[in-house]
Design a protein that fits this description.
With 593 residues, the protein is an alpha+beta fold. 35% of the residues lie in helices and 20% in strands. The chain folds into three domains: 143 residues, Creatine Amidinohydrolase, Chain A, domain 1 (3-Layer(aba) Sandwich); 142 residues, Creatinase/prolidase N-terminal domain (Creatine Amidinohydrolase, Chain A, domain 1, 3-Layer(aba) Sandwich); 289 residues, Creatinase/methionine aminopeptidase superfamily (Creatine Amidinohydrolase). A six-stranded mixed sheet has the order 4-3-2-1-5-6. The chain has a six-stranded mixed sheet with strand order 12-11-10-8-13-14, sandwiched between helices.
C-alpha cells in the first residue's frame, strides 16, 4: 500500500475507535487561515494534495476531496483516484455531499477549531436529512494517527516599525476602542493572524511565506488588550513595543478567557472566528455581536506610508524580475534550464536586493502543460525543461518590510504558434481594459470582472479563477475583503488605498497556460464634468510584458498606446537599477510596439 493509502486506513480505524462514521478534514488552521503552518497541514498529509484551498470527507467506505477550479488538474495529479472521489466547488460543497453520502443515522465528526459556525449549521442541516448528526471532537483524529506531526513554530515575534506601518499600534487599538464604544460592546475577539499582526504592529515566522505569529487577541473598550501567544516567542523588544496596555498571556489561556466573559457583550467575526470561539463565549454567558473584525477594512485601505513603501518594494522587485527575464532570454536558448532551476534563479535575484524577508508564496514556475495548472507547484517528479515552442508561466512575489509583491509573466520561449499569440493577446486586452477602467465610488469588484474576461468570452474562452485579490502590507499576499471576481461571497465596494491584483489568464489543458498579473492601487480620479466621485487604478508593478507573444494586429490604437506607455514607465523605474547587457535588453524589451 502507498503511504497515503496507509494513512487513510489508519484514520478510518481511529474513527471506529472514536465511534464516528466519518470525519471532515479542511485545509485551514484554528485562525481560518488560507496559508497554514506545517503542524496544520492535515489535508496534505492525508491525501497528498499540495494546493492552498480544499477539504476532504472520510466515510467508512468512501472518501471525497473538494477543490475549486484552480486545482481541478492539480488534485488529479497529486491524489489517488482509486481512493478519493474528486468534487468541484462551488458546484457542490462538503455539506451538500454529506447530505447524500453520509450513512443513515451516522455520527460525522468535525474539529470545532477548524470550521466556522455557518459551516457547522449548514452541515448539521444537511445531515439531519439523513437522520445523521455532526459531532464536535475534543482532539482531532488526524493528529492521533499522524506520528511525526510537526510542532507549531517557536519563532520569535518581531516589531513592525511605525516607519513601515504608518500608524502606531496604540492608535489602532484606540480606533478599535472607539468602534466598540460606538457599538456599545465591551470587547472584540481577534483570531485572524493578519488582523492581529496589523493591529499590534507585530510580525512573525510561524507560517511559511506569510509573516504572522500564532496568537489570539481580545481588545477592550478602554483600548487595553490581551494578547495570547506562547511566552517563549516574546522577547524584551516586543514587550517594550506592546507597552503596559497589552497584557501578554499564554495562548493556552485563550479558551478560558472567552469563558470568563460572563455578562459582557463581545464582538466576533463569523467569517474569521471558528465555531469553538462562539461556543466558548456562549458557555461563558457572554452576549455575542457577530460582526466583521474591525481590523479588516482599515488593514485593506493602505495609508500613505504603506503606499509609499509598497511602491518602493515594487520598484525593487520589478528590477529583480527584469534581471530574471533577461537571464531567461539569454540562458533558455542554450538549453539546460528547467522549472526548478528557473524558480531558484528568480529567488536568487530577489535575495540580491538584500531586503527580501521571504517569498510571498511558493513560486509557480510552469512550462507548457504545467503552465496550464493554475496553481502549479513544481517538484522533482513534475519538473520540465524550458524548451523552444512553449509558453513559460512564472507567478511569484516577495515579502519585504515595506511591501508585499505578486506578479505573473508569461514568456514565449522561441516562436509561439499563432493560436498562442492570439490567446495571449486576448488576455492582455482584458488586462488593459481593467487597468484603464474608471468607475464610480461604491463599485464592487464583481461589476468590473467582466472587463477582463470579455475578449476571451467573445471567442468562447474563459478562466476558472478570480481576476483580482487584495494584497497586504508585509502581510498576506491574499488579503480581503476586496476582490475582483464573479459575484458570490463577500463583495466589498472598492475604496481608495486598496491594493488588488489584475490577473486574467487562459489555460489550455495539456498544452500551455497564460496569465498576466500586475498589482494596482485604487485611486480617486478627476473626471471633467463627472456627476459622481470617480475611481480608477494606478498600476504598481513594473516589468516587461513579452512583446514576442503579442499579436499586435488585434490590439486597438488605445491598447497599443497603453502597452507603449507602460513599457516606457518600466524603463523609467527599473532602468536606473540595471546596467550593462541587462539594461540594453530591458530597453529592447520595452521598445514601442
Amino acid at each position: 500500500m502507498s503511504a497515503y493509502e496507509d494513512r487513510l486506513k489508519a484514520l478510518r480505524e481511529q474513527l471506529v475507535r472514536e465511534r464516528l462514521d466519518g470525519f471532515v478534514v479542511p485545509l485551514t488552521d484554528e485562525h481560518m487561515s488560507e496559508y497554514v503552518g506545517e503542524y496544520a497541514q492535515r489535508l496534505a498529509w492525508l491525501t497528498g494534495f499540495q494546493g492552498s484551498a480544499g477539504s476532504a470527507v472520510v466515510l467508512p467506505e468512501e472518501a471525497a476531496i473538494f477543490v475549486d477550479g484552480r486545482y481541478t488538474l492539480q488534485v488529479r495529479e497529486q491524489v489517488d483516484a482509486a481512493h478519493w472521489q474528486f468534487e468541484s466547488v462551488p458546484q457542490t460543497s462538503v455539506a451538500a455531499w454529506l447530505g447524500v453520502h453520509a450513512p443513515q443515522g451516522g455520527r460525522i465528526g468535525y474539529d470545532p477549531w477548524l470550521h466556522t459556525r455557518a459551516w457547522v449549521k449548514a452541515a448539521s442541516e444537511a445531515l439531519a436529512e439523513r437522520g445523521a448528526e455532526l459531532v464536535a471532537v475534543e482532539t482531532n483524529p488526524v493528529d492521533a494517527v499522524w506520528p511525526d506531526r510537526p510542532a507549531p513554530s517557536d519563532a520569535r515575534l518581531v516589531v513592525h516599525e511605525d516607519r513601515y506601518a504608518g500608524q502606531s499600534a496604540a492608535e489602532k487599538r484606540q480606533a478599535m476602542a472607539d468602534w466598540l464604544t460606538e457599538k456599545k460592546v465591551d470587547a472584540v475577539v481577534l483570531s485572524a493572524l493578519d488582523s492581529i499582526a496589523w493591529a499590534f504592529n507585530i510580525r512573525g515566522k510561524d507560517v511559511s511565506r506569510t509573516p504572522v505569529a500564532l496568537a489570539y487577541a481580545i481588545v477592550h473598550d478602554d483600548a487595553t488588550a490581551d494578547l495570547f501567544v506562547a511566552p517563549e516567542k516574546i522577547d524584551e523588544a516586543v514587550v517594550q513595543h506592546l507597552g503596559n496596555a497589552v497584557r501578554v498571556r499564554s495562548r493556552a489561556d485563550f479558551a478560558g478567557a472567552l469563558r470568563d466573559m460572563a455578562g459582557k457583550t463581545v464582538a466576533a467575526d463569523p467569517e474569521r472566528a471558528v465555531a469553538a470561539i462562539f461556543e466558548a463565549l456562549d458557555v461563558g454567558g457572554a452576549t455575542i455581536l457577530p460582526v466583521r473584525d474591525p481590523a479588516v477594512l482599515p488593514k485593506a485601505i493602505k495609508n500613505p506610508v504603506e503606499i509609499a513603501g509598497h511602491k518602493a518594494a515594487q520598484a525593487r522587485d520589478g528590477a529583480a524580475l527584469s534581471r530574471f527575464l533577461h537571464w531567461i532570454a539569454v540562458e533558455t536558448p542554450k538549453g539546460g534550464v528547467d522549472e526548478l532551476s528557473a524558480a531558484a534563479r528568480l529567488e536568487a535575484f530577489r535575495k540580491e536586493t538584500g531586503l527580501l524577508e521571504d517569498l510571498s508564496f511558493d513560486t509557480i514556475s510552469g512550462v507548457g502543460p504545467n503552465g496550464a495548472v493554475v496553481h502549479y507547484r513544481v517538484e522533482e517528479k513534475t519538473n520540465r525543461p524550458i524548451e523552444p515552442g512553449s509558453f513559460y508561466l512564472v507567478d511569484s512575489g516577495g515579502q519585504y518590510r515595506d511591501g508585499t509583491t505578486d506578479v505573473t509573466r508569461t514568456i514565449a520561449i522561441g516562436t509561439p504558434s499563432e493560436e498562442m499569440k492570439r490567446r495571449f493577446t486576448l488576455v492582455l486586452k482584458g488586462h488593459i481594459a481593467l487597468a484603464r477602467a474608471q468607475f464610480p465610488t461604491g463599485t464592487r469588484g464583481s461589476q468590473l470582472d467582466v472587463l477582463a474576461r470579455q475578449f476571451l468570452w467573445a471567442e468562447g474562452l474563459d478562466y476558472a479563477h478570480g481576476t483580482g485579490h487584495g494584497v497586504g502590507s508585509f502581510l498576506s499576499v491574499h488579503e480581503g475583503p476586496q476582490r475582483i471576481a464573479t459575484a458570490g461571497g463577500n463583495d466589498e465596494p472598492l475604496q481608495p488605498g486598496m491594493i488588488l491584483s489584475n490577473e486574467p489568464g487562459y489555460y489550455k489543458t495539456g498544452e500551455y497556460g497564460i496569465r498576466i498579473e500586475n498589482l494596482v492601487l485604487v485611486e480617486r480620479r478627476d473626471v471633467p464634468g463627472a456627476e459622481r466621485e470617480m475611481l480608477g487604478f494606478e498600476t504598481l508593478t513594473f516589468a516587461p510584458i513579452d512583446r514576442n507573444a503579442i499579436a499586435v494586429d488585434i490590439l486597438t490604437a488605445e491598447e497599443r498606446a497603453w502597452v507603449d506607455a507602460y513599457h516606457a514607465k518600466v524603463v523609467e523605474i527599473v532602468g536606473p537599477q540595471l546596467d550593462g547587457d541587462a539594461l540594453l535588453w530591458l530597453e529592447q524589451a520595452c521598445a514601442p510596439l
